[in-house]
Amino acid sequence: MTVVVIDERLEKAYQDVVRRNPAEAEFHQAVREVLESLGPVLAKRPDFADSRIIERICEPERQIIFRVVWQNDAGEVEVNRGFRVQFNSALGPYKGGLRFHPSVYLGIIKFLGFEQIFKNALTGMPIGGAKGGSDFDPKGRSDGEVMRFCQAFMTELYRHLGEYRDVPAGDIGVGAREIGYLFGQFKRIANEYESGVLTGKGLGWGGSLVRKEATGYGAVFFAREMLAVRGQELEGQTCLVSGSGNVAIYTIEKLHALGAKAIACSDSSGFVVDEDGIDVELLKQVKEVERRRVSEYATRKPKARFVPGGNIWEVPATVAFPSATQNEINGHDAKLLVKNGCIAVCEGANMPTTPDGIRVFQEAKIAYGLGKAANAGGVATSALEMQQNASRDYWSFEYTEARLQKIMSEIHRVCYETAAEYGSPGDYVLGANIAGFLKVADAMDAFGLI
Ligand code: NDP
Ligand code: 2IT
Is the pLDDT of residue 1 over 60? Predict the structure, then answer.
């Protein structure tokens, strides 16, 4: 793996993070990516070194780890671990999703919380950065088990939440069902109908139209902007969308609405190819309604084929939307994509490309939209949900989607212009990291040494 040489002060800050957070590889990776972008900022702003802003930003404001005990359907006692990392509240209340997946440990939650700080800053909305979750695996669990787990999880978490304090939402393994159980338990314990304490709520009880669609739709809007500045169009592109969860489904839906074609999607057991274009209504039926595996799609659509254990990035296409999980594209996959004619990669997932993979995209000079910019539409629409809750109002689909579209195009503009200003035109990694960092660092500076 190539190691990029960075400014001595940044290297020291990075080494301190590694030393103080041992065995948290994903967190180290997320920090390194941001610090690799900050050299030109330190050159212009030596005051940041004096006030040790970098070291402060890499240290979470608060980390909560707790025991979650619940009973499964067989009456057996299960013990899980819950997390909430309240990373940074310079710009607003802590905000970020909850992930329920067996791979969850502190390093995953910290990487996600760290990314969330800069992503949330880029949205231009008044929200700080946080992430939480548990190593609970919802796969194969009954509704009753999920409910009891969520109730036990919220019984501890509720004391750390509030409309002005910390506002979680969904992420992997946490969708409308889980948010419902979590909100119900919060309401029961707090004895207050505090709509603004969670986002991603159901439409009948304080949720916002477009929140469910927002991350996927937003990623497609971002891809369209990246292509437009290169004089290219999204219409007519053939796309790969990894995953088949919330982000993947609504990425596919918007791609088709805008005249592109998504021909493949996946889950952790393999991928499906449908040269006619993925039938998104069938995918919703299989995944959202029946909660089955993506292979089921192929059994119901004879022209589609399922490749068990296969690598979706081997399928030739022109635009890729990694929308499953971290580090799902490595250097080898990135080379394959480029070799097969891929002109743009737009990340619906958080940190789906390894550092080696990112370098392949950058060297090939294809359009590369990193997650903290490209998938910010989800959390931005969560902030719109908070706005509606605070004003006890309810906006139309058209109005909310127009707001999302404007936010995505602003994020694109800011990243694009910042990259150009710092001497790397077209480098969204540099643009997003610098623009997000400056917003948070300036606010922290104004608050003094806290
Ligand atoms: P879902 O739980 O709805 O779907 C996750 C999908 O990714 C599933 O198809 C799942 O397959 C697959 N997946 C998850 N983990 C792995 C793994 N370790 N290996 C292979 N495939 C995996 O989650 P979302 O769609 O909400 O989230 C997808 C990504 O988007 C995540 O990176 C998340 O952090 C990010 N994101 C989500 C936002 C949101 O609003 N929901 C906002 C911004 C980013 P399987 O069922 O087999 O596990
Ligand atoms: O990664 C993310 O931005 C999310 N999972 C959404 C967070 C949110 O608060 O809506």
Answer: no
